[in-house]
Amino acid sequence: MEPILLQARKTCPFLHGNTTSALKRLAKTKTNGLLVKANQCPVMGAAIQTRSMHHSVSAKDQQKQIHDTKLFDYENFYKQMLDKKRNDKSYRYFNNINRLAKKFPMAHLARPVDEVTVWCANDYLGMGASPLLIEEMKKTLDRYGAGAGGTRNIAGNADLHLQLETELADLHHTEGALVFSSCMVANDATLSTLGSKLPNCVFFSDELNHASMIQGIRNSRAEKHIFRHNDVEHLEQLLQSVDYNRPKIIAFESVYSMCGSIAPIHKFVELAKKYNAITFLDEVHAVGIYGPRGAGVAEHLDFDLNANKPYRGNGSIMDEIDIYTGTLGKTFGVVGGYVAGSAQFIDMIRSYAPGFIFTTSLPPVIVSGAKTCINYLKHSNAERRMQQLNARTVKSRLNELGIPVVPNPSHIVPVLLGDAVSAKIASDELLNKYDIYVQAINFPTVPVGHERLRITPSPGHTPAMIDHLVDSLEDIWNRHGFKRITDYAAEGGRCDVGKKDLPEIKPLWTDEQLNYNLSIEENQQEVSSAI
Predict the structure, then answer these.
(1) pLDDT in tens, the chain (531 residues)
(2) Which strands sit side by side in the sheet containing 98-99, from one edge to the other?
(3) 120, 154, 410, 474 from 257: Cα distances, Å
């Protein structure tokens, strides 16, 4: 206070004539004598009065402004956002589909009497309706109840969780595994944790990677480079642009679920080794379906070797993958996700990832079902074979009619429409006129102009069901004049449909692996008697 008074005494006679101690005593009086003196001053008095008036006017003006200004309309904002979705045809419609466990792949709509055949489920092998899983889950429910009781750290870490993680580690030939509430959470939590903890980390991500991977990379705030889909040369160019010694993660999927393409895993692993990077392989749409034990595409690439030596260190490409992620909610019939890798990697994610630490663990009944399914599919190829045969049949039948199927070597059958309106018309008519459910796939899941129906044949689809699907699609294409393969060829091709000089695409499952000499009827009998 004294430096301020010394400066003020130079211009104020009152302050100049009083000591600092006298001014302090004056300020401590009941009537605040210092303020009284200030009001008597021709300079300070006017300043205090002006300030008081300013504050009073400001308060009144502020109140008037609040009443006069239109308040933010939250509901109108929501409506505008939804209108935007409807106008650009990206609004999502959800059908009421109730899958019937005893009549797979059938489901009923809102009314139980209205039954439809489901042709787009991700329960690829129908294991969600398996009596084996259902009976095991009933036993677990009776013994352990409905919920897990808390996070893994607080009452939610049961022996079943540990058994499931051991089963998953064995499936992928890794030292450890960690279970999450979904693979969306597993990918987000793992990538965001790695990207934020690895010093100066750089991501290299395929342009068609799933939203969960995109979100995890974004949440890490690490540097990222996007390479063209499955483009090995472009990836290498990007890797060359980054310091060799910086931590690098190459993130990609094995099977891309909307187009059915398969990643060049061997080549990506080679680049990772060459440029000091680690690989992050999402096998979500491949686990349970590919490989002699259902570990995914990485296992399938060395089919015979992994069939005869199903363990780590056998010399297969599986040993070269650093991190696997997968789901329990598709081929394995229940819900949840996981990561698998080295013991120290798993422990690091377990210790640092908020998406694992602060989430209630999966209920024992779900974990029991997943463990049972994984173990069963390690020893049964019947369902995988039948699914692949049905996928081949549907693709072949549609191609014969000129109905455009995006070419790929996997089990996915993407039927190209090319615009959102046509895709919805086809989906709605299949449901309402033909009792077939196939969801339309629009932006942002696929780019604008790539809209499609995504068909996923299963072991449970019979020849009669296939006939009905193909005939229904042909009827819809004839009635609406939707584009056929020749139309896309005339445009120069789209999504590889109608593309000139397209190399032959062979199915990942070979005839030998499928025991192709067996008839469809014999395979169906094998599936029926497998459980």
Answers:
(1) 555 555 555 556 555 566 667 666 766 665 566 666 666 676 666 656 655 555 555 666 666 666 667 899 999 999 999 999 999 888 888 999 999 999 999 999 999 999 999 999 999 999 999 999 999 999 999 999 999 999 999 999 999 999 999 999 999 999 999 999 999 999 999 999 999 999 999 999 999 999 999 999 999 999 999 999 999 999 999 999 999 999 999 999 999 999 999 999 999 999 999 999 999 999 999 999 999 999 999 999 999 999 999 999 999 999 999 999 999 999 999 999 999 999 999 999 999 999 999 999 999 999 999 999 999 999 999 999 999 999 999 999 999 999 999 999 999 999 999 999 999 999 999 999 999 999 999 998 999 999 999 999 999 999 999 999 999 999 999 999 999 999 999 999 999 999 998 999 999 999 999 986 665 566 666 666 554
(2) 98-99, 106-108, 115-118, 436-437
(3) 11, 36, 9, 24
Cα dihedral 206, 458, 507, 450 sign: negative
Q: Is the dihedral of CA 137, 141, 147, 150 positive or negative?
A: negative
* Candidates 330, 378, 395, 424; catalytic one: 330
> Positive or negative CA dihedral for 414, 415, 418, 419?
negative
| Cβ atoms of residues 321 and 291 within 8 Å | no
Q: What are phi and psi of 360, to 5 degrees?
A: -60, 135
Q: Cβ distance 219 to 238 under 8 Å?
A: no
- As a whole number of Å, the end-to-end CA separation of the chain is 89
Q: Judge whether 292 and 264 are in contact, CB under 8 Å.
A: no
Is 137:369 a contact under the CB 8 Å cutoff?
yes
330 is catalytic: yes
- As a whole number of angstroms, the distance between CA 404 and CA 492 comes to 14
Structure tokens at 328: 């329990």
- Running DSSP on this structure, what letter comes out for residue 129? G
* CA dist., res. 281 & res. 269, Å (int): 10
CB–CB of 266/301 below 8 Å? yes
Q: Token pair 């009497």 is at which residue? A: 113
Question: CB pairs under 8 A, 24+ apart, for 488-497?
Answer: 488/404, 488/416, 488/418, 494/416, 494/418, 494/449, 494/450, 495/259, 495/406, 495/414, 495/416, 495/450, 496/406, 496/407, 497/404, 497/405, 497/406, 497/407, 497/416
pTM score of the predicted model: 0.84
